[in-house]
């Protein structure tokens, strides 16, 4: 589950995806959101063609793992609810829940761009920016399970207010998320009416990540510069993360990574300029292997791990 | 060893300090710096009153732990030298070396303000800003040993150049170190000649951390506001770290922490305003128990650990 879309799938033990279901979750209240989750899982479950043993959820929400209750969700009304308990009751099978970006990190570490790494940083850039950390080869959850909110480190001390329920301003998410990308693209489209971006605005197209990426791939300079602006901000955040973690790899996923090198190129250039050696020379900065499906695949891995642990306990 | 001073001590296995030696290391070239280190250790060794079994060093330098070579030191000419090997040869006893702020974290975790904690963040604020991380109960060193450079995360994207050998700008260290504190104090002293700070400048006193702290404790508003400015920037950096690590405690040490609550009060207020729940409600933000001696005491702990490990291997 991301800030605007939910993706469900029937996933086998080798993390192969057999059936996909997509739903919009934008502008729903909590009850409707829970209904959509049940509905999407039910459809994936019925269409998977095999017995579904458990469900894993990655939700864009800070979890208190002591209680299983989401404490705050920046972009969705997911807090103050024992999401896992509610889903287990409504679905009638075992349910495992963690933060969506943690699940993306788990998928990329298990079978994707961070495979075999001991230290990895995951960023999922969509409506908001999620973070996941693999430290000493394991998912890092912090004191009570609310760590890795990498989108909410401040990179611009007097920057613009963050979005949704975040009380902060100048967060990485506030200036480099898909939402920020759309905002900057709209500004640039207005400033440069004769650019591809400007003409798209005049033609009534939705000025957002997918269109900017498409225009940039077609060579529109305004769109390329928009992605470069966001890519450089991404690089500033990654500079801090490289200095903090000295990671082997930084994996960038989420919808915005459809822009690929147009975003990662400028980010890498900033890290090369601004981060400290030896960390800046050791780190690879790459796109997620599983793209927007990383969170879903990681949630499946969480469920398989959870089932295995329960079997161990029972033995 | 900090950016301007070196503190050596004869330390027993319970981390009690029996003899202290202090030296200036400001403005030395590498050869002179190594001589001062040998000299200080020799004095502490001869005055300790007991057999010294090993020496631990905390140096303000990013270590590549694969080679034992310092890769970059922001504030001292400590790089490109196998510091531990050189010291072991010149001192003739076992030597163990790690980053100074890592050592401060080790001391505070072993016997100070982070004792008993599983997740702790250490900041040492002096000439520069060092960082140390205790994650899952152990010191975190990252991929090759260069992690926890918390002073070099960007908190002001278009901020002033960082100091010494750091290629970055807008780093936490660039805006909230003791050096930044002195710079802001000088600006405020000039702007407000009738304040205590302004009169101190007119009287030719050195406008730096110790004087600002003294004047603030005496009630000088200009000095109090200077510390509040730096304290709020400290709070912005801690906000990011709280969102990243969901730590139980953030421990602040280094020379600047002599200002105590005048610095920590504003920092806590910013974290309460800007960080995400539940992390912001779980974290304690406190002064280091060992103050400026944390790094020295941690280096001793490193040496005791190192000796114990060697004895295990030999057995």
Give structural notes:
- Two copies of one chain form a homodimer.
- Chain A has 315 residues and is an alpha/beta fold.
- Chain A folds into two domains: 5-100 and 293-314, Nucleotidyltransferase, domain 5 (2-Layer Sandwich); 115-288, 2-Layer Sandwich (Nucleotidyltransferase, domain 5).
- The first copy, chain A, is 44% helix and 18% strand.
- Chain A has helices spanning 30-47, 83-91, 100-111, 172-176, 178-191, 196-202, 209-217, 221-245, 261-274, 279-282, 294-314, and strands spanning 5-11, 17-24, 55-59, 62-64, 69-72, 95-99, 120-125, 129-135, 138-139, 249-253, 284-287.
- In chain A, the strands form four sheets. A five-stranded mixed beta sheet of chain A has the order 9-8-7-10-11, sandwiched between helices.
- In chain A, helix 3 (100-111) crosses helix 11 (294-314), helix 5 (178-191) packs across helix 6 and helix 7 crosses helix 8.
- The first copy, chain A, is globular and about 65 Å long.
- The first copy, chain A, starts with a strand and ends with a helix.
- The mean pLDDT of chain A is 94.
């Amino acid at each position: 589950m991301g800030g605007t879309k939910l993706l469900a799938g029937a996933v086998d033990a080798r993390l192969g995806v057999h059936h996909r279901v997509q739903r919009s979750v934008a502008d729903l209240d909590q009850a409707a959101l829970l209904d959509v989750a049940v509905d999407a899982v039910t459809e994936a479950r019925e269409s998977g063609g095999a017995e579904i043993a458990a469900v894993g959820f990655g939700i864009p929400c800070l979890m208190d793992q002591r209680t299983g209750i989401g404490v705050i969700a920046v972009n969705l009304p997911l807090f103050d609810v024992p999401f896992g308990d509610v889903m287990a009751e409504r679905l009638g099978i075992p349910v495992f829940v963690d933060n969506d970006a943690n699940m993306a990190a788990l998928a990329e570490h298990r079978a994707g761009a961070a495979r075999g790494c001991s230290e990895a940083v995951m960023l999922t850039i969509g409506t908001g920016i999620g973070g996941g950390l693999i430290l000493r080869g394991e998912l890092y959850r912090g004191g009570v399970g609310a760590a890795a909110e990498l989108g909410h480190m401040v990179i611009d001390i007097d920057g613009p207010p963050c979005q949704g329920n975040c009380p902060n301003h100048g967060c990485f998410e506030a200036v480099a998320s898909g939402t920020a990308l759309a905002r900057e693209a709209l500004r640039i489209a207005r400033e440069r009416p004769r650019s591809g971006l400007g003409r798209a605005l005049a033609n009534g197209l939705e000025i957002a990540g997918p269109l900017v990426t498409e225009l940039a791939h077609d060579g529109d300079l305004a769109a390329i510069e928009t992605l470069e602006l966001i890519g450089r901000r991404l690089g500033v955040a990654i500079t801090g993360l490289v200095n903090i973690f000295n990671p082997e790899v930084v994996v960038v996923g989420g919808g915005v990574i459809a822009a690929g090198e147009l975003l990662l190129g400028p980010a890498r250039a900033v890290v090369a300029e601004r981060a400290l050696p030896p960390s800046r020379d050791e780190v690879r900065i790459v796109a997620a292997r599983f793209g927007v499906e990383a969170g879903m695949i990681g949630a499946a891995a969480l469920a398989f791990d959870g089932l295995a642990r329960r079997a161990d306990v029972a033995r």
